Amino acid sequence: MNKSPLSELSSTLSDEMQSVDYLINQRMFSKHAPLIQELTNHLINAGGKRLRPLLTLACANICNYKGTYHIHLAAIVELIHTATLLHDDVIDESFSRRGRPTANKLWDNKSSVLVGDFLFARSFQLMVETGSLKILDSLSNASAEISESEVLQMSLSRNLSASEEQYMQVIKGKTAILFASACEVGGLIAEEQSNKVEALRLYGEALGVSFQMVDDFLDYTGTKTGLGKDIGDDFREKKITLPIIYSLQTQNQTNQKFWRRTLEKGNQEIGDFETAKKILAGDGSLERTRLEAIYWANAAKKQLKNFPHNKLNALLSRVTDYVVARVS
Amino acid sequence: MNKSPLSELSSTLSDEMQSVDYLINQRMFSKHAPLIQELTNHLINAGGKRLRPLLTLACANICNYKGTYHIHLAAIVELIHTATLLHDDVIDESFSRRGRPTANKLWDNKSSVLVGDFLFARSFQLMVETGSLKILDSLSNASAEISESEVLQMSLSRNLSASEEQYMQVIKGKTAILFASACEVGGLIAEEQSNKVEALRLYGEALGVSFQMVDDFLDYTGTKTGLGKDIGDDFREKKITLPIIYSLQTQNQTNQKFWRRTLEKGNQEIGDFETAKKILAGDGSLERTRLEAIYWANAAKKQLKNFPHNKLNALLSRVTDYVVARVS
Q1: Rounded to an integer, what distance in angstroms lies between the CA atom of residue A96 and that of residue A186?
Q2: Is the predicted pLDDT of residue A224 greater than 70, yes or no?
Q3: Global pTM value
Q4: Which of A81, A77, A28 is nearest to A54 (CA)?
Q5: Could you tell me the domains of chain A?
Q6: Interface pTM, i.e. ipTM
């Protein structure tokens, strides 16, 4: 059986990933506030895919970077990602992630908010240590866009007139920009030519868009295993994701009435989630979402033509297939 | 009647403060998420003293800075401060600040968490624009220490064995370090000699320590007006502040029993806050706290000897008196 490209990336970059873990552990240590390390360990060691730091390491390597600061960068993107998870779980009042209780469930909201803030601030300290203003620019911009897009997402929840364009804005900001920056900084630290740095950024962005569309698809079809959050969360939280936008476009009166009651008004009854799944499978909305995710995965893949064909390039290419394989 | 040194600082630096407000407004504008600007305006225009940005501007001026980046720096410290207020009010479940409803009360916790994250990220973008790694280092370090100290403070709540040393660690981290950094970066942007930059940092730190001790004093004596939070909040939140630590040191058995019930066990009854105030006034704890605050205000003032005597120097000196005048 073929190993997944993520497992292969992990083995290929295992020494570097160990250094990333070491750095994270070292910088989370707080003599006075041991809670910080406990809570961070709970999240980072929770068996996530570590996709973002792997992308950073791979992109630095594909640009022949010979220094050690890509370890910093990989730790930074993992810390920013972890901080957003901590705050997201508080905001969404989620009690389970990857089949394990969330930090806000195990500890409390206070701890999750404060430790999230600490992780953001620590990641900025690590950026400053790289001494590169271009890197600081890329990552601080990503951080600002993440929170701006989450505010936008919040204001669009329950809003049945949310457009595809607004959906794209939300997912580019809340998900794709960190993928884009994770890849871009790998090129920047290697002082790669600007057109190649841009290719890495576009690879990451398209991959992130595809990744989020797949997540939004799986929320109406998946099983608990392998997914970040529990399935059905988007429905319960009345988020207007791409499958819903497509379903509303079909103008089916019965279905429209159902979405108005369950998402706009928020009156959800037992059995509604099953009905939602049936509607989206029946009216072609899930299939359209799947095709759109594949389109973006292919767009990501095309950017890799700017780099020499080698093992890492092939793995980054397979990562795009892997992301959408979850919906095939 | 004498004007307060803060009003005089405000008038002296009014053109620059207008530029700070303009910059903040400009960078809070979000076409897609107007909530960000609404919520930030609610806080920043709430009639706060604007002490931190005034300190930054004054310190840059006292070092004869002739550029324009001190405007950025003053905006940054105000944004960091505002972000911590937003998250603090969520954490402390406070519904009133400076006599007005808090953002988490007017909007909700989600908005406060996300907009706080956005303000932190925006402040980092502004730091990057200054192009100074020393400034980035100072302010990113301050941000990390603020959240680390808030985690420490949380873990010390209800803990009657908290020491004076731990209290100092908490207030140096959660309050004084931002005062210190606000002053330090004024010197750094002016490329002032390092001993003078250090003097500004020490001035800010000592002023911040004094400021926080006064706040902790006023929580058991003050009236609502002029204070950041409502009086009695520390008691209700079971925070172990300096007056409590001093009271526990007196070893009065009756009082100890009272603190064990109300703070350690958290069983608070009607009339307990009045009793708490009486105990602290009677056993000399408030007086000791007052004297300690004055000690730190004087320590701040001494650092100003490193700078030429002029109007701004005199105002910064009077600010130290003003901070402790609230307890006299």
Answers
A1: 32
A2: no
A3: 0.94
A4: A77
A5: 5-325 (1.10.600.10)
A6: 0.92
